Write a sequence for this structure.
């Protein structure tokens, strides 16, 4: 048995895709600033990177307001329920054709590992990247006030480490997108908002063995 359920609202999808585009463009322009390749030209890449960072900040502000006014922040609350099953599934079960141990609902959209990952992104990686970016942008003013006396190099290096962490997340996220019921089912769900929920995804605890079975 299966049914179609609206899992992702319009703002969910707007937030997801806008964030994805901005993170990718920030990565492209940021790595160009560091001399990894040449696409826009150094000065234009710097200008674009700064504007994209500002746009990301505005998007985050709207997202925070939306998450708290609609109680959507509850989807990120850490939980240990089914955490062990999810770790087993991603490390082993997914390669052995086992069914996904987590069932999405309108009230629970993220599995335990997703909750921890997205919470880390929203509370650690994104804020740290933003603060480091501001420190880099206002370095001269901060240095004049006696801050960052060791130079801008350390700020830039940590900012780059954060960029690689986001790149690793993006690659893993794109791969896991293909591990749904079909190769494109997760992608379609994030585009349309609707997802087909299968009863097979519900974890079923094993039946306790009878005394006769244990004795035999």
């Amino acid at each position: 048995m299966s049914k179609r359920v609206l899992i992702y609202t319009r703002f969910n999808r707007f937030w997801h895709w806008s964030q994805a585009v901005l993170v990718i463009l920030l990565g492209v322009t940021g790595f160009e600033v560091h001399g990894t390749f040449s696409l826009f030209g150094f000065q234009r890449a710097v200008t674009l990177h700064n504007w994209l960072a500002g746009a990301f900040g505005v998007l985050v502000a709207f997202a925070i307001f939306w998450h708290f006014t609609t109680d959507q922040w509850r989807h990120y609350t850490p939980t240990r329920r089914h955490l062990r099953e999810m770790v087993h599934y991603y490390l082993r079960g997914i390669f052995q054709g086992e069914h996904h141990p987590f069932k999405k609902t309108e009230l629970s959209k993220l599995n335990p590992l997703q909750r921890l990952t997205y919470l880390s992104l929203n509370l650690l990686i994104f804020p740290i990247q933003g603060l480091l970016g501001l420190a880099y942008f206002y370095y001269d003013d901060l240095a004049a006030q006696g801050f960052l006396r060791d130079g801008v190099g350390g700020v830039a290096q940590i900012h780059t480490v954060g960029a690689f962490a986001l790149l690793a997340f993006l690659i893993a996220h794109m791969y896991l997108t293909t591990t749904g019921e079909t190769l494109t089912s997760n992608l379609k769900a994030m585009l349309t908002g609707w997802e087909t929920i299968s009863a097979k995804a519900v974890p079923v605890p094993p039946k306790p063995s009878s005394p006769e079975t244990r004795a035999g």
